[in-house]
Amino acid sequence: MKILHVGQMIGGIGVYIRNTITAADGSIDYVIVSGKDDQNKLVMKDGKVIKEYKVDLYRELSLKDLKGLFQIIRIIRNEKPDLIHCHSAKGGFLGRWAGWLCHVTTLYTPHAYSFLSSQKQVKKRLFTILERLARHDSYMLACSGSERELGIKEVHYNESHALVWHNSVPDALSVMEKEEAERGTDTVFKVCCVGRPCYQKNTLFLIEVLKKVVEEIPDTKCYLLGVGYYSPDLEKVQMLIKQYGLEENIEMTPWLPQKETFEYIRNSDIYLTVSRYEGLPLSVIEAMSLGCPVIASDVPGNVDCVKNGTNGYLLPSDASVFASRIIYLYRHPEVRKEMGVRSRELFEQHFCIDTQIKKLLKIYSEAVETSRN
Prior knowledge:
The chain is α/β, with parallel strands linked by helices and about 375 residues long. The chain is about 45% helix and about 15% strand. The chain contains 13 helices and 15 strands. The chain has helices at about 10-25, 65-80, 90-100, 120-135, 145-155, 170-175, 205-215, 235-245, 260-265, 280-290, 320-330, 335-350, 355-370, and strands at about 1-5, 30-35, 45, 50, 50-55, 85, 105-110, 140, 160-165, 190-195, 220-225, 250-255, 270-275, 295, 310-315. The strands form three sheets. The protein has a seven-stranded parallel sheet, sandwiched between helices. It has a six-stranded parallel sheet with strand order 12-11-10-13-14-15, with helices on both faces. A two-stranded antiparallel ribbon has the order 3-4. Strand 1, helix 1 (about 10-25) and strand 2 form a beta-alpha-beta unit.
C-alpha cells in the first residue's frame, strides 16, 4: 500500500507525519507533498529517505493555491497512491480536492479546524464554508474525540466518515538517557509551556496568569518554548513581560532539538497550556510521557488527554483561577507527584505511538478496502 501525505511539514503537522512514518512497519510506501517554504529535515525510514515533493503550499489564501492544486494532481497521477492523507487547513483543502478529482480515497486530519482561529464571525463563516466545500466523499480522521464531534457538527461529516486516531508520540523517556530523565533537585518552582506566541496559544493571557503566580511565588521560573516561526504576538508578549517586570521570571526560547525540549519539560514542576483551541496537543502528550502534571484550558483537544483532578486540571479562561491552581500545586508537592504518575499512566494507555500505530494502519487498510468494494 502506498500513502501520500499532503501538508506543510512545520510544527505539529510535521511531527505527526514524521512520527507515524517512522513508527509504521515496512509494509507501506510513503510519499510526502509539502510546502516550498517548509524548512524541514528529510524524513528517514529504515535508513532510506522518504520521497518528498515541494509544491506551492502556503499558509495564506492566494492565487498560488490553484497552482498548488494542479501540482498535487500531477504528483498523484505520477505516484498512483492507494490513499491520500492530508493535513490541516491548506493541505486539507487542496488535498481533498485533488483526491476527489483523481478518484483516490482521501483522509483528512484537521489538527484543529481553521475556523477556530478566526476572531471575526465573517471570516469564521467563510472558513467553515470552505471546509464543507472540500469535504466531498473524504473521511475525516480526527486526532481527538472532541475534534470528531466538531467535524460532524460544523462541517457536516457523516458519522460513518468521521474517524478518530488519537495523536500519539514516541515515549520521551526512551529518547533521553536514563540519567537525564531524572528530575532536577533545585528548589526553584518551574513551569513549562510550548507554543508560539499567537491567538491560538493565548500567550498574552498566559503572561497575565504568570503575573499573578509571581506575586505569590516570586522566584517562579517559566520556560516558554517554541518561540520563533510564525509568532505574530511576539512583540506584544515581550512588551507585556517588560511592563510587568517579569524579565527574570520568563525565559523565551525558539524551537529546540527534541531532546533539549524534553529536558526542559522533565525538569519542570508543571506543564501549562492556556490555548483557546487544540486538535490534540502533542506537547501536552509529551509532557504526560515525562510524568508532568498538566494545567490546561478546558477546550477541545485538551479535554481528550487531561483528566480534571486526575493528572491535572481543566480550567476556564480566568487568570485568577489558573494562578490559584498553580499555587495550590506549588504548595502541595505530594499532589503534583501523584498527578505526574497519573499522566504517565494515561500516556502509556492511550498515546504511546509504539502501541497505537497499529490502529492507524488498520484505518488506512480499511479505508482503501472500502473504496475498492
